Write a sequence for this structure.
């Protein structure tokens, strides 16, 4: 099944959201400082990430983000 990845940056709150696939009700676990991983409440499927305080990571903050993905995570075109 083909999944889209959507990025949204909230300038006012300094939060980057990465959404994988269709939106659903999710719970989030903190996996690193200011880095949260979201999972579907019903299936546990990986649904995205939220990164708080992105600007604190520096001017090139977007280049310094490292997100550990599950071994079975697959992106195809």
């Amino acid at each position: 099944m083909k999944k889209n990845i959507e990025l949204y940056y909230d300038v006012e709150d300094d939060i980057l959201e990465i959404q994988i696939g269709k939106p659903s009700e999710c719970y989030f676990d903190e996996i690193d400082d200011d880095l949260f991983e979201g999972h579907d409440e019903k299936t546990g499927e990986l649904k995205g990430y939220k990164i708080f305080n992105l600007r604190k990571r520096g001017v090139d903050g977007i280049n310094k983000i490292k997100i550990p993905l599950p071994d079975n995570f697959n992106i195809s075109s």
User: Anything to note?
Assistant: The beta strands are 5-10, 15-20, 26-32, 35-40, 46-52. The chain has a mean pLDDT of 82. The radius of gyration is 13 Å.
